[in-house]
Amino acid sequence: MHDLLPMIGNWFWWIAAAVLLLVELLAPGIFLMWLGLAAATVGLITSVLPLPWQGEALLFAALAVAYVYVGRPWYAGARHAKTDQPNLNQRINAFVGKTYVLEEPIINGQGKLNIDGSRWDLLGPDLAKGSKVHVTAVDGMKLRVKEG
Q1: Which pLDDT tens digit goes with each residue over 52-111?
Q2: Order of strands across the sheet with 142-147?
Q3: Which of 15, 86, 97, 144 has its CA 20 to 30 A from that of 113?
Q4: Whole-model pTM above 0.85?
Q5: How far apart are CA 110 and CA 124, in angstroms?
Q6: Cα 14 vs. chain centroid, distance in angstroms?
Q7: Rounded Cα–Cα distance for residues 21 and 35 (Å)
Q8: Quick check: 123 and 95 in contact, CB under 8 A?
Q9: Which residues contact 72 (CB under 8 A, 6 or more apart)?
């Protein structure tokens, strides 16, 4: 094993970076990405500045901790950034504040409404077919409505 350690060079870090980034693609969790970037950085540094294997390992460990420490909060903030389409993956929330005409009555506080070819469950006051309803909120996968 001691004979192999001196042979670890920048190629080792490039391979490690590629493997870590590939595994990140297969099982996304945004953790291995930081380790892959640390390995790539060590590969870049060791191609210019030869280090003993112990120095390479310490540099990798330090960079991995630094990248995780700096990168995770940055990535979390970027994921929750303002967007011009906040309801893109939550289509039901886009209906709040809109008014529709009932095609079926609301009976015992429950009904159904067709919106753009999709059928949605409603919660609200009993209303006759043809009544206008205003969507006030989302309750799970149901729309809360009031007469309006």
Answers
A1: 888 999 999 999 999 988 887 776 655 555 666 655 667 788 888 999 999 999 999 999
A2: 99-101, 132-139, 142-147, 118-123, 110-115
A3: 86
A4: no
A5: 6
A6: 27
A7: 8
A8: no
A9: 30, 31, 34
